[in-house]
Amino acid sequence: MNKTKVLIVDDSALIRSVMNEIIRKQPDMEVVGVAPDPIVARELIKQTNPDVLTLDVEMPRMDGLDFLEKLMRLRPMPVVMVSSLTERGSEITLRALELGAVDFVTKPKLSIQSGMLEYAELITDKIRAAARARVKARSVPHPEHKSSAEGLPLIRNPLTSSEKLIIIGASTGGTEAIKDFLMQMPSDCPGILITQHMPEGFTRSFAKRLDSLCRITVKEAEGNERVLPGHAFIAPGHSHLLLARSGANYVTQLDQGPPVNRHRPSVDVLFESAARCAGKNAVGVILTGMGKDGAAGMLTMRNAGAYNFAQDEASCVVFGMPREAIAVGAAHEVGSLQALPGMVLGHLAAQGSRALRV
């Protein structure tokens, strides 16, 4: 069996030691080098040709983002960021994902050594997913404001009912996939609910970043908000997001119940609530991500009358969640990330047109 070769880059000797210990215990992985900064890492990459790089966000001698930008331009490879649980750390991490990092893990707040060992399963799962990921260098513009969406083709949204909803689930690679999807949404699109696997603290920064880039309003869900056209709600990292009814209106609902499929927020929880509350008025979309979260919930949506879309393998960073949804027969159509927004709105427009003729 060929082992996944991992290079660890972190300025903390303790983190390097703990990560080394975690990875060396995995039968399918090996540590081919450790580096205290990007200058040393650059030489080790040439010498060891790693399959996956773990990279600290904030480091001396060269900033982690500067290094990542150069790396993805000159030698694109799977990178998992190791981030701090701070507002600044979350913003830098989101920027790293834009630059092409596959995923990230967060350093524990308290005892780093014991905390990192508890995170061993999460860290190694993410390294395994990164090793299988499709890595593409991304060109990222620095200005961030609403007009950023103006260069994209405007997809019109004719004849759709305010009763319609778009329900989205994603994991690994999903922050960029969701951004690409939402940036093509017109300001009068149906209300959107989103679950992206992401820790608490990062979802607020993610929502703010999307809000600055999209024509629609994007926010982290707080619960009991009316779901209106032109608005997208992102599940906070600490709670499941559900769709609920309040009289004639759809509203958001948060639940801090146990993780489902090892995740809170869970895509299955959101999809199953959409099946219960919206039925045929919902359109499900499952995007890139590792694991199977969302497949069963999307099938429940289909059985309740919803129409569902899955991202295709070629455009996914990790074709795990969409593959599982397709395998159980939950998706009606499969399309590339670039095509999905038009496919979704085209379906809704056709439904609206049929309703008018009836």
TrEMBL record:
InterPro entries: CheB-like, CheB_C, CheY-like_superfamily, Sig_transdc_resp-reg_Me-estase, Sig_transdc_resp-reg_receiver
Keyword tags: Chemotaxis, Cytoplasm, Hydrolase, Phosphoprotein
Gene3D superfamilies for the chain: 3.40.50.2300, Methylesterase CheB, C-terminal domain
Reactions catalysed: L-glutaminyl-[protein] + H2O = L-glutamyl-[protein] + NH4(+); [protein]-L-glutamate 5-O-methyl ester + H2O = L-glutamyl-[protein] + methanol + H(+)
Matches recorded under PROSITE patterns: CHEB (PS50122), RESPONSE_REGULATORY (PS50110)
Sections of the chain in a coiled coil: none
Described purpose of this protein according to its UniProt entry: Involved in chemotaxis. Part of a chemotaxis signal transduction system that modulates chemotaxis in response to various stimuli. Catalyzes the demethylation of specific methylglutamate residues introduced into the chemoreceptors (methyl-accepting chemotaxis proteins or MCP) by CheR. Also mediates the irreversible deamidation of specific glutamine residues to glutamic acid.
Family in the record: Belongs to the CheB family.
Name by which UniProt lists this protein: Protein-glutamate methylesterase/protein-glutamine glutaminase
Species annotation: Noviherbaspirillum aridicola
Lineage per the UniProt record: Bacteria, Pseudomonadati, Pseudomonadota, Betaproteobacteria, Burkholderiales
Gene giving rise to this polypeptide: cheB1
